[in-house]
Amino acid sequence: MKPEIIVALDFDNLDSAKNIVEKADDAISWYKVGLELFVADGQRVIEYLKSKDKKIFLDLKFHDIPNTVTNAVFASLKYETDMVNMHTQGGPEMMSGIVGQIDEYCDKHSVSRPLLIGVTLLTSLDENYLNLMKLGFESSREYVLHLAEIAKKSGLNGVVSSAQETPFIKKAIGNDFITVTPGIRPAAASVDDQKRVVTPKDAKDMGTDFIVIGRPVTKADDPKKAAMEIREEMC
Ligand code: C5P
């Protein structure tokens, strides 16, 4: 059912990640492995998630020269993850270079190809950043849309953005261009340090494809119940 829930495993060790995956059981099939957990124990975490038949979003936000990022995405293929991301601010040459080479390689070697997703403007940044960097955009939304359009032209499958930007992205680029949206908080949950939060139901109504949710599930007394309530909230 759309949107799919991706639980962010924001931990520094395998055991904590295992604890959540075991408790959430069959209520969650997608997990996000980010920088902290990957640096701490990436290989074992991924092997564990694969052994549990879970889908993996490898959230390493690659951003470097085209050759380096292409090689990093190639290196990630051995993990057989389902989604990998990179910064759209790395530019069209970086993104299209990866897409072309990965498509060719995966076709030729019958390797399953991860969804390639671009990070737009981090939600920790806002108009002040655009002004400081003299980027010449009036609003974050305008800049996110611009980055999403470049990502689409470069052949990426979608972008990470705020759910509030999803309707604009879908309208301008098309419904099949995926949006992956963090900053989700169930109606009754604590906002934590997120600023522009959206409820699961609103994210669904805005047409997003994947919601990324961390603490409301990972800090819950009963992660399975929390995940099921989020799903119910979206019905
Ligand atoms: O615990 P919480 O639901 O806030 O976790 C959200 C996850 O999404 C974290 O892993 C965070 O790093 C990530 N994220 C985010 N905002 C972005 C990009 C990623 O919150 N713009």
Short summary:
The chain has 235 residues and is an alpha/beta fold. The protein has ten helices and eight strands.
Helix percentage:
40-55%
Which topology does CATH recognise? TIM Barrel
Number of strands: 8
Instruction: Report the radius of gyration as a whole number of Å.
Output: 17 Å
Low-confidence stretches: none
CATH class: Alpha Beta
Instruction: State mean pLDDT (0 to 100 scale).
Output: 95
Secondary structure elements and pairings:
Blueprint: E1 4-8, H1 14-24, E2 30-34, H2 35-51, E3 55-62, H3 66-76, E4 83-87, H4 92-109, E5 115-119, H5 127-132, H6 140-153, E6 158-160, H7 166-173, E7 178-181, H8 200-205, E8 210-213, H9 215-218, H10 223-233
Parallel strand pairs: 1-2, 1-8, 2-3, 3-4, 4-5, 5-6, 6-7, 7-8
Helix pairs in contact: 1-2, 3-4, 6-7
Bound molecules: cytidine-5'-monophosphate.
Fill in the keyword field for this structure.
single chain, 235 residues, alpha/beta, TIM Barrel, eight-stranded parallel beta barrel, 10 helices, 8 strands, globular, binds cytidine-5'-monophosphate
How is this structure best described in words?
The chain is built from ten helices and eight strands. The protein has 235 residues and is of the alpha/beta class. Strands 1-2-3-4-5-6-7-8 form an eight-stranded parallel β-barrel, surrounded by four helices. The site of cytidine-5'-monophosphate has 14 residues, from strand 8. Cytidine-5'-monophosphate is lined by residues 8, 10, 34, 122-123, 160, 182-183, 192, 194, 212-215.
